[in-house]
Design brief:
The structure is a single chain. The protein is mainly alpha-helical and 141 residues long. It has a domain of 67 residues: Arc Repressor Mutant, subunit A. The chain is built from six helices and three strands; from the N terminus they run H-H-H-H-E-H-H-E-E. Strands 1-3-2 form a three-stranded antiparallel β-sheet. A hairpin with a 4-residue loop joins strand 2 and strand 3. Helix 1 crosses helix 2.
């Protein structure tokens, strides 16, 4: 009598019950070997992802990360854009506040996000925090 599947795993009592059920069903017309092979597939391979499914899952995860980065104001790419293309151009030799910056980036970010970007840029040493309420900033130079 066969004691293991082709992959070396032991055939349990429960597996034998399922195999016997498959063989005894008239509609399936399976031999014992075919029923064992089918049970092995059901038990070990049916849930395994194909390489295409794995790649698709990775692509979805990456797309989600990319979308989140685009909407996060403190991401590397967004901070670089805000500093180089907005702040350096619009506020050269000027003091500015969060709402001044927000007016220039309102198409991408909300007024509640801009203070976070300014705080991060100040902590990176690109801006001077002049204090006040609301805080005032100036380009370090």
């Amino acid at each position: 009598m066969i004691e293991t599947f082709s992959n070396g795993e032991k055939i349990t009592k429960h597996d034998w019950e399922l195999i016997e059920n498959m063989v005894s069903k008239e509609s399936l017309k399976l031999s014992l070997a075919e029923a064992i092979e089918l049970r092995e597939f059901d038990k070990f391979d049916a849930e395994r992802e194909t390489s295409e499914e794995k790649e698709e899952k990775k692509a979805k995860i990456q797309a989600k990360k990319d979308k989140k980065e685009q909407s996060t104001i403190t991401s590397e790419s967004n901070l670089k854009w805000i500093y180089e293309d907005v702040i350096l151009v619009a506020f050269k030799d000027k003091e500015f506040k969060s709402k001044d910056l927000w007016k220039l980036v309102s198409d991408k970010f909300s007024n509640r996000q801009t203070p976070h970007a300014l705080k991060k840029l100040a902590s990176e040493g690109k801006l001077d925090d002049l204090g006040g309420s609301p805080k005032t900033y100036k380009i370090k130079g």
